[in-house]
Amino acid sequence: MSTVTLKELREFKHRINPEERQGAYGYYFIRPLSLYVTYFALRLGLTANQVTVLQTLAGVAGAVLLAFPAPLIRLLGVALLQFGFVLDNVDGEVARFRKQVSVTGKFLDVVGHEIVIPFMFFGLGIGAYFQLGRFEAIIFGFLAGFFSLRFDMSAMYHEAAQLLETKLDQSYDYYANLPLEQSSALKIYRRKNEESAIRMLYALFAYPATMNIITVLIILETIFPPAVVGGFSLSPVYVFLALYGVLLLIRRVLTIRRLVQGRETERKYVALVGLLRNEAQK
Asked: Cα separation of 273 and 91, whole Å?
């Protein structure tokens, strides 16, 4: 077990990342809270990867509880989701403190997000169905969950990696002969998109923004009963799922269009080849 003190841990966090910010919510709530959770994780002797697994389990448990119509159970569900987000910070802090930063850890972190986020929408849709008796709530939930998966980005990275493995194959001669100078265009293209208004709007569809929106909606539903509009029962969660199910579909289509037009697979492949060559020359 570690004998680290809170003072030492606080100084360590400030030293490794003194200007770390995750928005007002992350900076003023999550970061201070993660300090104490990290302290207990270190005292218990947990590794960074173990914390990541706990983060995923907490998120899945919270998502499952969202499928229940009882308000208090759903509140417990969002509480577990929020705790999972705290652990999402803790695993990185434990990894840096113990010098356990690894590719495996980053992989587990990404896999955890890809599991929790769809489950969160699935649970929300099922819960809205039990609450309102409207089956389309399940459809909206599954649409939002499915299109929250970054399958387009995964396909791009997979294809780029596969090209690296088979670059001697004649069918990939075009890629093998791409000039490395194109890799600089990748950074320019990214910077241009990151500064766009569309890119900023995309943040609303990303974790943890969606989780925080869901938390607020669940709290509102606990206080206010569903409204009846035109003979139909509506709740904030139902409206949210309907909008997100459609908007996430549109977002995914636009992302695929951007990847194709920007020839991102080629650019990523060229960038990877450049990195490998630079490493080989060291």
From this structure: 30
